């Protein structure tokens, strides 16, 4: 989950979105986005799909890690 959270943060920042705006676009709260980015909660594939849709990227992009 840490790698996914880090990737969500990276893609969100590259898109120029705040946690609040990504949350609005994905129908999640800012706090939920923050907890996902910090890997403080396990996230369902449905939630990750909503985040990917909000970022206008394929879901698989959330699983492309640099290491």
Automatic annotation (TrEMBL):
Record flagged with keyword Hydrolase: no
InterPro entries, per the entry: Cro/C1-type_HTH, Lambda_DNA-bd_dom_sf, TransReg_Diox_bact_type
UniProt domain HTH cro/C1-type: residue ranges: 8-62
Annotated keywords: DNA-binding, Transcription, Transcription regulation
PROSITE patterns from the UniProt entry: HTH_CROC1
Xref: Pfam families: HTH_3 (PF01381)
Presence of the UniProt keyword Transmembrane helix in the record: no
The name this protein goes by in its record: Helix-turn-helix transcriptional regulator
Annotated organism of origin: Flagellimonas algicola
């Amino acid at each position: 989950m840490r790698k996914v959270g880090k990737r969500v943060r990276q893609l969100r920042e590259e898109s120029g979105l705040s946690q609040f705006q990504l949350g609005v676009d994905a129908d999640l709260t800012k706090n939920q986005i923050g907890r996902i980015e910090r890997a403080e909660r396990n996230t369902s594939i449905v939630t990750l799909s909503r985040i990917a849709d909000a970022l206008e990227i394929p879901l698989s992009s959330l699983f492309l890690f640099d290491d």
